[in-house]
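Much of the work behind modern protein science is quiet bookkeeping, done one molecule at a time. Below is the pair of lines this work produces for a single protein:

***
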Amino acid sequence: MEFMTQAVKSRFPKKAQKGWAAACLAGALSLLLVSCGQGRRPGNLAAGQTGNERVVTLFSPMEKTDPNAKNVARSATDLTIAMAEERLGVTVAYRTYTAENYQDKTYDEVILDRARSNMDDLYLLNPDTLMALGREGALMDLSGLECAQNLREIIRVANTVDGRLVGIPQEVVAYGLFINKSLFDQYSLALPNTPEEFLECCRVFQQNGFKTPIGANRWWLETFVLAQAYADLYNGGDTEAGIAALNSGQARYSDYMRPGFEFLQTLIDRGYIDPEKALVTEAIEGEREDFLAGRTPIVMAYWGAANTETAYGKTDFEMQVIGFPSSRGQMPVMPMTGFGVGANAEHAGDAMQVLEVILSDEALEVYSQTNRVISPSRNVKVDCVPALRPLNDRIEEGVYVLGSNAGMQVEQWGNTCLIVRQLLAGASVEECMAEFDRLQDAALEEG
């Protein structure tokens, strides 16, 4: 990853980093990856450009279904792309990342290389690459688009670099705790709001035979940390002043992060999570079976996992999705991905027009209704499944923590994830805080 210091990189070889892009994009793209798995057309769709045909290329982790196929179900993104193609007379061609094709390079590493070489027009960006390319001036400013005027403020804040809006997603990805409400009721437990209440729930479950109450994986334990670290920053007053203090070095990231890491260490010490298992477990794959079988009362996942049967969309018990415990109650954690346009892209003008269509309220209505997700537009509201209402209510109240913020000099989502893994592997809280200090000091030196 571009924004990891060498100290962090040295503890995680390439193979251990390869899944990071998939994990970060999981909330926004998991349903797309499933729906795009059929009807694929081999080869590079951009290869056949001839004559006056207008082709806009999109680099992403997914392939596009055959645009000429009849009566084929298309993903939510494909539906909006079809709107753009029809209205603008363009073809949007997907160039797809495949891990095998790039050997040891992660999606993030590849997209940085491609964007810096102006190889594509549109990019689907993780938070760290959006930040890096935005600072380099490699992405267009999207703030002048008509669709940008309808964005929720959270989108604008998270995707603005040096005063320029450089990325806009098609959905707001929210992470929460997936709770087996039936088990909580069985043991007369209220849904936890604070870290202390959460620990008590775990104690009761363990006392009643649930050896490891929390199903964890190597990607998403940072959600506990981020919820506790930034609950006050994003909900307690002047967010801009707090971020400015971090960027200047007046405040330390390690001071924000310490309570969350101490909390995770307590979960480890009391046996509420299995650190050895979590360290090697992929997201959802490792904990899904036990959660669905009622052997694990609590897991963590993203909003879309409650909508699909390949994750947690069909349970034999009552499930509720709530925010993570914090000093301000249940706290959703929301990292951002986004579409960006290469500043020097060959077809930048057409690419901007494509974004204008696919990010319009009309297109976002189609996208959000299809996937039943939170829209980046404040004008688009979608009824969520009952299990998601507790999480949705908090978000609609304006209560949340950003898991990624391009305005911060130190990238949050990926770096916190990797440092949490150090804790799982046996590092002390103090050693983890030292990693944050090194990241911050390196960012300050770079200016």
Summary: The first helix runs from residue 6 to 9. The first strand starts at residue 54 and ends at 60. The chain has a mean pLDDT of 84. The chain is about 45% helix and 10% strand.
